[in-house]
Design brief:
The chain folds into two domains: 2-156 and 287-328, Metallo-beta-lactamase, Chain A (4-Layer Sandwich), CATH 3.60.15.10; 162-282, Rossmann fold. Helix content is 21%, strand content 27%. It contains six helices and 21 strands. A seven-stranded mixed sheet has the order 8-9-10-11-13-20-21, covered by helices on one side. It has a six-stranded mixed sheet with strand order 2-3-4-5-6-7, with no helix packed on it. A hairpin with a 7-residue loop joins strand 9 (96-102) and strand 10 (110-116). The two termini are 28 Å apart.
């Protein structure tokens, strides 16, 4: 986890000045910059943390994201007015200065830093503090106010190392291959699917669902280190690993796979109730776990924290019990 040099964080007027970021029906809004962050409703100007559909939606007047995130966002949203920005590059927008910093979530993902007269707010987007074999590592950004995601903001969510989980998946795959059975691993088409490829390269042939292959091809052309893959149209090679989207198994595509075993890779597999419909489950998340959230909040040095997405109220209460100013943002 990289660390920026800390600014002087104590800010006497912090609680008396107007907030830099507000929650609106369209999403997070910066009045002094007149832009939204990851809006879901139509707005004139959107700053986007990454290309997942719950953060990058159609219909905005213009988009600003990292150079690395832009190709996938264009692929998913079609014809849009969009611009890329380098990590760490400062941009004056209205009365604030903004910059994008690595979030470690998926390739190109970013936290957005907003500064006004020495006061700094950071909107985390989705993030992961542990490194992986694919995306840019998380960078802790010092700030006065931190808006943190809390997708897995309960103590029950504690991730094993990536090496350990990839070893579990490799053994499951090899056991299936020894029986002449194709292994089908369900994962999000952007980020998780490619992280699995990178972590499992060299074991055997890897095939993909067409939706996964389209995103993989974009990232490969951007220079991300990904192993060779081929689209699974019909029966894949015996003993292959097929990486597919969760909803692919309900389509006609799945009927051509031949004998296969199905598993899923997600942080939600930590909950037994989420494992239905899979023969195996692997706990692998692109979000911070409990320890990661706490490490990130501490590293920011923030004086106040707002929680968004997931277990917002319990995590805000936990931070208050530790003496921090924290509340859930609806």
């Amino acid at each position: 986890m990289q660390m920026n040099p800390p600014p002087t964080l104590r800010y006497p007027a912090l609680m008396t000045r107007a907030p830099l970021i507000l929650q609106t029906p369209q999403g997070l809004y910066c009045p002094e910059g007149e832009f939204h962050i990851d809006p879901m409703g139509r707005v004139p100007r959107a700053l986007i943390t990454h290309g997942h559909s719950d953060h990058a939606a159609r219909g905005m007047g213009s988009y600003l994201c990292t150079h690395q995130a832009l190709p996938v966002i264009r692929h998913r949203l079609g014809k849009i007015t969009a611009e890329g920005i380098a990590y760490g590059e400062q941009r004056q927008i209205g009365g604030v200065t903004v910059s994008f910093h690595p979030a470690g979530h998926v390739p190109g993902s970013a936290q957005i830093r907003i500064e006004r007269g020495g006061e700094v707010w950071v909107a985390s987007g989705d993030y992961k503090t542990a490194p992986d074999a694919l995306c840019e590592p998380f960078e802790a950004v010092r700030c006065h106010t931190f808006l943190t995601e809390t997708t897995f903001g309960l103590p029950i969510f504690q991730w094993q190392s990536e090496v350990c989980v990839m070893g579990q998946i490799a053994r499951w795959w090899q056991d299936n291959a020894a029986r002449g059975v194709v292994s089908v691993l369900l994962a999000y088409s952007f980020g998780k699917a490619q992280r699995l490829m990178a972590g499992l390269a060299g074991i055997g042939p890897i095939c993909t669902h067409p939706v996964v292959e389209a995103v993989t091809d974009i990232l490969r052309h951007q220079g991300y280190a990904l192993p060779p893959t081929r689209v699974a149209n019909g029966a894949p090679p015996q003993g292959a690993l097929v990486i597919a989207t969760p909803n692919a198994m309900a389509s006609d595509w799945a009927m051509g796979l031949g004998p296969h075993e199905v598993a899923a890779a997600s942080g939600w597999m930590a909950l037994a109730a989420r494992r239905k419909g899979t023969g195996a489950a692997f706990v692998l998340s692109d979000h911070a776990d409990w320890a990661g959230l706490n490490a990130a909040v501490a590293a920011t040095g923030s004086e106040q924290v707002y929680t968004l997405h997931g277990y917002t109220d319990p995590y805000a209460a936990w931070l208050r019990s530790k003496g921090l100013s924290a509340e859930a943002m609806s």
